[in-house]
Amino acid sequence: MSQSNIPVNEIYCSLVDKADKKFSKIKNLPYYERNRYDTYFCKVFKVYTQLWKFQQENRQKLVEAGLKRWEIGEIASRIAQLYFGQYMRTGEASYLLESFIFYEAVLFREYFKEGLFQDVNLANKQLRFLARFITVCLVLNRREMVHQLVNQLTVLLDECKRTFQETDFKEWKLVVQEIVRFLKADSAYINIRPLRYSIVLDLHPDLLPQVAAYDGKKNLRLRDAILSTFHLNEVKYSELTLDAFRMLQCLEWEPSGSFYQASGIPLSSTSTTIGQNGGGPGPSRINYSQDITDPTLPPNPRKAVLYHPSATHLLAVLATISEELSPDGVILIYLSASGTDGQAMPSLSSANISENMIRNFRSHSISTSNPSSSHSDGDHKICLYMGTRRNGGLNCIYPCDLIPFTRRPLLIIIDSDGSKAFKAIKGAEKGEPAAILLSPCSSPPIHHASGSLFTMFLTSPLQAFYLLLGFSGSDSEMGLCHKAEKLLSASLNDWGLTLAASDNLDPLWARLLSDPFIRRLLLRFPPDVHDKRQIPPHVHGHISLGCA
């Protein structure tokens, strides 16, 4: 029987079944099977392209055969999930934008509205859609949309509790509590400056001061990053913790001007215009796509955001990334977790901070601890707890776990009260010297409702400084904030020039300073932020949406 003789609804059902099977395979693939994931992504994306196009071309016949609007919304939501998953694995901003576009279409076309309060399964689909869309908007910095979605999620949840009284919505209540807490903790970052690298505010990569290569070795570029945190009761939304969220954005390019455009212009004028009765993507979407992919900038580094990984899982991801790393690449490993309850490290006087910083840059290990203190034998027993301690060594990352991977260039950032133990890596490398940034070994750890202070200084130093001073970020203080931002930028640029021109700069740092993301982290690297006396004076494939 030729396909032309097969009923339209049977072809549609066959495509849906095929797409569902491929989607179920890809959503559970781990980060450390990248090549396999890329292959599956192409296959499942091709099927969903066929499915979306088929339902567009045969909409009327399918509706007559019983197609519901929520089924169309389910397809669009799956496509948005695919795009977001690919963004999380590749770092390409265009995938993030496409995910936003499809989710926004589902929202404005109200695909799940019909029969919402007659079917608890349909209500759960709408709740899941809103929760996932919130994640995309958070990462895309569409805060106005985030607040709209949170309000919708809260109202919908309350209505579901009244309508489906026999159903337990406790988990959804926790989701609402998580996002409210997340937004409250991150509110100090709004309307100041983006966390991403902005060529409007930061030096363009082509204008960075050149550092002479040592021993004929080429400069290194940040190609991959592993970001993982674990703290009891840490601020998070879904599987994205606040500290990982800040680091994620800090390692990406900000679309030129989009942060300020999104803050001052209504959402409807910067995104896809879609109504209940249809209408394709307008010119605003095309302009925004062109804005978000700047051809003059290198691609974003790939990032693996691991939520509470076991030690073997984290090391498997690191092994795969190391195997795939390009010859000029460096891997950033950011781990934020509790280590040991050891005693607080001795404080440095403010007069010795500059001397300490210069000494550190002559070496390839930088620590905010007392430089005269050396790691003892007991330090080798200290580990980072990337999960609950009742699981023993399954969740423990020791310094020696990372040493085998020093055959490739690494930049290791440890944010922990047990960070000093990772000094043991220095001198034990297996091929390439590891660059290490260590947080203060303070007691208690510098971690509170607004996230880690150390991570805040790395990702947004001025806002971290405001937090220490108790500034609220009110409108009356914004003028002072902008002046401080200009002063800080000028100071960090001067510091960068000083390092680039230094004759005593360690060869490893010289190879890293040419990368804009790493350079910015190094210049922002703080002294002991727990001791206020040490705050330095400079604070240092494509699917078109079509009709509805």
Structure summary:
By secondary structure, the chain is of the alpha/beta class. It is 46% helix and 9% strand.
List the helices and strands and how they pair.
Layout: H1 8-26, H2 34-57, H3 59-64, H4 69-90, H5 93-109, H6 120-139, H7 143-163, H8 170-185, E1 221-230, E2 236-237, E3 240-241, H9 242-250, H10 258-264, H11 283-292, E4 302-307, H12 311-324, E5 329-337, H13 353-361, E6 365-367, E7 384-385, E8 396-397, H14 399-402, E9 410-415, E10 435-438, E11 447-448, E12 451-452, H15 453-459, H16 461-469, H17 478-501, H18 507-512, H19 516-524
Parallel strand pairs: 1-4, 1-5, 5-9, 6-10, 9-10
Antiparallel strand pairs: 2-3, 7-8, 11-12
Structure description:
The chain is of the alpha/beta class and 548 residues long. The protein is 46% helix and 9% strand. The chain contains 19 helices and twelve strands. The chain has helices spanning 8-26, 34-57, 59-64, 69-90, 93-109, 120-139, 143-163, 170-185, 242-250, 258-264, 283-292, 311-324, 353-361, 399-402, 453-459, 461-469, 478-501, 507-512, 516-524, and strands spanning 221-230, 236-237, 240-241, 302-307, 329-337, 365-367, 384-385, 396-397, 410-415, 435-438, 447-448, 451-452. The strands form four sheets. It has a six-stranded parallel β-sheet, with helices on both faces. Strands 2-3 form a two-stranded antiparallel ribbon. A two-stranded antiparallel sheet has the order 7-8. A hairpin with a 2-residue loop joins strand 11 and strand 12. Helix 2 (34-57) runs antiparallel to helix 4 and helix 15 (453-459) crosses helix 16 (461-469). The chain is globular and about 75 Å long. It starts with 7 loop residues before the first helix and ends in a 24-residue tail after the last helix.
